[in-house]
């Protein structure tokens, strides 16, 4: 009996200890599932929580992308507006040059230093040409102001080439010699002996437009002084060759004589492509604005 009683006591203690351990395991599993976001079902772990952090990160990335892409239509709108202002400035500049080249001519100033502020200003003077020291700026095509206004900015050519004839002109009342661009001659008429009727003699009045010296542009050849082939207007070098003062005047069309150079070769038409840029930038602004609206507001896949 004693042995049976002791066996029952030991069994009860063992079962009690097992029940306590089972409760502890259950409590631990419950706590673990609540902390980690997993739930055991039929021997499997199922995730049911802690996904909010990744969703928030994705929403943050979408928000950044949304406002970052909005910079594209905003930038193109700004560029289009800037081109509107540039076009207005260019039109005012062209209008100012046109007024200068069509204004009443003033007498040629005595002081050469005054010419730095008189470019494109019309002047008049009396004197005599020295045809023995002609210079030739080439290749040149004849100026057609109306055509150039229509085709400003295009890479086109009239197909006709020749030269502008630069001739020293002794101004009688001032006692100085200046350089006058008498105008355009075709290639076959560059040599003076081919246009003797145009080599006018005697004193005459010349009206023209003041021009300043030029700097050589990229891809423009250097002037060949020995061959008398000039590719840009270098007043310092030209004056050294002819002995003239550094004053240069483009004779107007009224100076043209039969058989001589064609006057009025002043190019005052400036490139004005701003309207094309305006259409381009505003068009890109409209297109990208619609794509942004469709993507982020209407939620349409684009």
From TrEMBL:
One GO BP annotation of this record: mitochondrial respiratory chain complex IV assembly
Membrane topology: Multi-pass membrane protein
GO annotations of cellular component type: mitochondrial inner membrane
Pfam families per UniProt: SURF1
Ranges that cross the membrane: 277-297
Compartment(s) of residence: Membrane; Mitochondrion inner membrane
Superkingdom of source: Eukaryota
PROSITE patterns: SURF1 (PS50895)
Keyword Mitochondrion recorded: yes
Keyword annotations from UniProtKB, A to Z: Membrane, Mitochondrion, Mitochondrion inner membrane, Transmembrane, Transmembrane helix
Family affiliation: Belongs to the SURF1 family.
Function according to Swiss-Prot or TrEMBL: Probably involved in the biogenesis of the COX complex.
Protein name: SURF1-like protein
Organism: Takifugu rubripes (Japanese pufferfish)
Primary gene name: LOC101074563
């Amino acid at each position: 009996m004693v042995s049976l009683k002791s066996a029952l006591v030991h069994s009860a203690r063992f079962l009690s200890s097992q029940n306590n351990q089972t409760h502890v395991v259950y409590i631990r599993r419950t706590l673990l599932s609540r902390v980690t976001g997993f739930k055991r079902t039929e021997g499997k772990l199922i995730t049911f929580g802690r996904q909010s952090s990744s969703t928030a990160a994705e929403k943050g990335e979408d928000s950044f992308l949304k406002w970052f892409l909005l910079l594209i239509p905003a930038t193109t709108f700004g560029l289009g507006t800037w081109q509107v202002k540039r076009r207005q400035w260019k039109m005012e500049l062209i209008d100012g040059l046109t007024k200068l080249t069509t204004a009443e001519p003033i007498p040629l100033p005595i002081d050469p230093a005054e010419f730095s502020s008189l470019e494109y200003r019309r002047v008049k003077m009396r004197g005599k040409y020295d045809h023995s020291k002609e210079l030739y700026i080439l290749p040149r095509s004849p100026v057609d102001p109306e055509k150039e206004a229509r085709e400003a900015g295009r890479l086109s050519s009239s197909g006709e080439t020749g030269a502008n004839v630069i001739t020293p002109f002794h101004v009688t009342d001032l006692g100085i010699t200046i350089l006058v661009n008498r105008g355009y001659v075709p290639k076959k008429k560059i040599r003076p002996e081919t246009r003797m009727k145009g080599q006018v003699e005697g004193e005459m009045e010349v009206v023209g437009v003041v021009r300043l010296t030029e700097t050589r542009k990229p891809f423009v050849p250097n002037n060949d002084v020995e061959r008398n082939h000039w590719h840009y207007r270098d007043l310092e070098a030209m004056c050294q060759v002819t002995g003239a003062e550094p004053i240069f005047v483009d004779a107007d069309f009224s100076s043209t004589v039969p058989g001589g150079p064609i006057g009025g070769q002043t190019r005052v038409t400036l490139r004005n492509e701003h309207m094309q840029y305006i259409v381009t930038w505003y068009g890109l602004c409209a297109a990208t604005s619609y794509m942004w609206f469709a993507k982020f507001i209407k939620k349409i896949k684009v």
